[in-house]
Amino acid sequence: MLARRFLGVAVWREARVTLLGHTCHTAGACDLNPYLPPTLMRTLAFLGFATSLVAQALPPQPVPPQNPITPQKTILGKLLFWEEQMSTNNRVACGTCHTFGNGGGDLRRTVHPGNDGVTPSADDSFGSPGLIRSDTGNLYLPDARFGLARQVTKRASPSFLTAAWFPELFWDGRARGNFVDPVTNATLIPVGGALENQALAPLLAADEMAHDARTFANVTQKLLSAKPMALATNLPVDMAAAIAGGVTYPQLFQAAFGSPEITATRIAYALATYQRTLVPNQTPYDLFIAGNNAALTPQQVNGLNTFIGAARCNLCHTPGLFSDRQFRNLGLQPIAFDNGRQSVTGLVQDGGKFKVPSLRNVGLRTSFMHNGQFTTLAQVFTFYLNGGGPNLQNKDPLLQPLGGPPPNGVPPQNANDLINFLQNGLTDPRLAAGVAPFTRPTLRSQLLPEGGALYGAGSAGTGARIPLMMAEVPANLGNVDFKLGVSNARGGAAATFVLALAPAATMLGGVNVNVGFGGSHVLVPTVLSGNAGVAGAGYGTIKVPMPTEPGLAGLTLYGQWFVYDAGVPAGLATSRGGEIRMF
Length: 583
Prior knowledge:
alpha+beta
């Protein structure tokens, strides 16, 4: 380059400091003048002035040598990641809460009532809807906080897309770097196994994918007979090819690991391997620092300049990964609401600290912070503009108000450009478009309503409570966890579940009947749990493994609950009808 011919290397580096108007520290971090004209910033970056000191590429991905990436493990991991049969209600896959369309997080933002169990209240947070609680036998069981409604995680789902670069995972870092086989207790990955640890945790979490006291033996046993991707549709080409011809999970594990055994460790290895192939490194920012001077707009360049200048974002969100991989307390909530990192380390100084996430693909997110408090980047910027949250106990000292005139403040145009940079400059277009490697199938939970395919009307019992039909579980052939439930009925009452070949819409004895009694039908008598005689306290479950007979595919049955209720004149309360679509 012309400049390099006239300047020695040492002078070249000094020239960069003079032209950019920043101070570089011994560690290589630089405080830039955030008010350079965008055209100058682009020109300097193009010539190489800014790229080595300011703009950094995504660092090389760490891969533990004990779990090298292979094509066979990658495709197995992809199948498992999107496999809803990994859960006990066949409605939740890893990819249910971690979607490409939301930058690796969850599009479903649901309130969690916090420690007080009341909403709305000050300790509320927003998380991911999981499972209705079930007991050790996978029978519905009221939860102290959620009853028989879907449970919600206390924290928002973090992005999984850059998880491989973090030495410890989850918001509090409880997924450590040393991976220990959960069955044998042998240390298999001494360093760098946080992704393997994280991959297994949701499988046994009762509010995410499991019933109470679920074990890895339950998980592996289910996969032995599960038909791969039986619930999903619109499979990407690679997934469809991998299971063509009726390939089973033991055969897929054989291809990936050399033998057909399905173990918790192998599940962790496959899931982690797949996630390590999802590298979001083709953002406009990445192209810009690689030499494409037009990849970022002038406004986005100014936003980058503001990011590493007056806004001071780079102090925690180091360019490249756009995280310093530390844990910090933002003053968002009192520590008593959620003590974060302290729950892992036991250290008082870690109270209220949470992982600093990567900002890559943050423009696709619709929920921000560990408690999901914010829904737009503008809200997040205002939060930092004001110096973070109001809770001062253990608050990170780096959080200082950014208001005021230049050179201390961030004027509106720079703020808009900063948000533009985050929204667009850090988004990998492959992710936004859902193209390779960020392809995914359509999940059954996207097609089946939350409570199941319900129809008709029910009839009220004691306390004007209408029994609620629970038909959420997909009726896929071979589903060992298939069940039907009822809630919101009279506690301790006798009940009958009626299964018929045809629906109905009639009245019988003064109650709504939604199943046909004219042809073949099945009656399943039971006694509901719950405090006897209490309105709405009654609940029950019928758990019947679905047969594997292929001829049943396409058959739809119709079910309804009849609850014998002495508290109403008719002596009977009924639920809505539920379609049981076998496939």
